[in-house]
């Protein structure tokens, strides 16, 4: 598979958007928000349904935010979010992170959340993000790390889920354990050690409502999303195996002592 031809593993099934629309600047970009200033121009790459994008726009009221995504269909949802919130300083467009249609030095901040794990050439993507970021600006990236995800109690079917997901994602040209690689990729892209600030943070699901939400969306995603189709079509799992994994997710979600943590790597790269 060519480096720039990776397939987005999840697609935009309702179970995927259920997760993406939960994301905010507070729960997904806190490592960045303290560096924002009211006048800044921000490029939000892989913006999806636009909830983080809209939050960023509210944080730069005298600035401008441009949200871009490879999938035109999801941008209609993003535009609706911005319109519902009355935001006049945000716009959306289709774009490829490997070849951004913007001049050099166009933005104060270039942000990507859960993007590099899905692209075929993350180093090339970081170089392109750096190109459109103005001197003195910030390239900000956050990605989960599937191998570092952990949960309790032990449910054998979830071990199977993790193994399957990582195989499907890599077959699609991505790297599911991206979080731990961000600093390495940034160095390869030309940032120096002194340019990069590396941090980590986690999402944690432990209350009854959180467990029901997280387990339900993954149970549905496992049998009904593009990920499910690619798992079967790629010969990684049968439909019966997917149903068994979905049942394991629901079993974990019903455990009163259930706990699940999603670790993320984060980098702030000064240009």
From TrEMBL:
What would be an example GO MF term here? methyltransferase activity
Instruction: Report the SUPFAM superfamilies cross-referenced here.
Output: S-adenosyl-L-methionine-dependent methyltransferases
Instruction: Write down the CDD domains for this protein, in alphabetical order.
Output: AdoMet_MTases
Q: Which domain of life is it from?
A: Bacteria
Pfam families hit by this protein: Methyltransf_31
The record places domain Methyltransferase at: 38-148
**Name of the protein:** Methyltransferase domain-containing protein
């Amino acid at each position: 598979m060519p480096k720039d031809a990776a397939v987005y593993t999840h697609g935009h099934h309702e179970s995927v958007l259920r997760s993406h629309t939960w994301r905010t600047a507070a729960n997904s970009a806190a490592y960045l928000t303290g560096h924002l200033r009211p006048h800044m121009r921000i490029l939000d790459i892989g913006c999806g349904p636009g909830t983080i994008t809209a939050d960023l726009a509210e944080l730069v009221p005298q600035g401008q935010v441009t949200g871009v995504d490879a999938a035109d269909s999801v941008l209609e949802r993003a535009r609706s979010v911005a319109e519902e919130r009355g935001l006049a300083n945000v716009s959306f467009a289709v774009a490829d992170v490997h070849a951004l249609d913007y001049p050099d030095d166009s933005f104060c901040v270039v942000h990507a959340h859960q993007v590099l794990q899905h692209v075929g050439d993350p180093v090339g993507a970081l170089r392109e993000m750096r190109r459109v970021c103005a001197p003195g600006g910030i390239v900000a990236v956050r990605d989960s790390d599937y191998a570092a995800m952990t949960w309790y109690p032990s449910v054998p079917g979830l071990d199977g889920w993790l193994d399957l997901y990582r195989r499907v994602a890599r077959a699609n040209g991505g790297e599911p354990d991206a979080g731990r690689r961000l600093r390495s990729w940034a160095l390869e892209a030309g940032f120096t050690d002194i340019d990069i600030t590396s941090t980590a943070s986690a999402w944690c699901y432990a209350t009854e409502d959180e467990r029901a939400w997280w387990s339900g969306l993954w149970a549905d995603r496992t049998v009904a999303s593009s990920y499910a189709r690619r798992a079967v079509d790629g010969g990684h799992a049968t439909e019966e195996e997917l149903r068994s994994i979905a049942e394991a997710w629901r079993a974990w979600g019903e455990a009163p002592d259930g706990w699940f943590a999603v670790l993320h790597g984060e980098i702030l790269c000064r240009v």
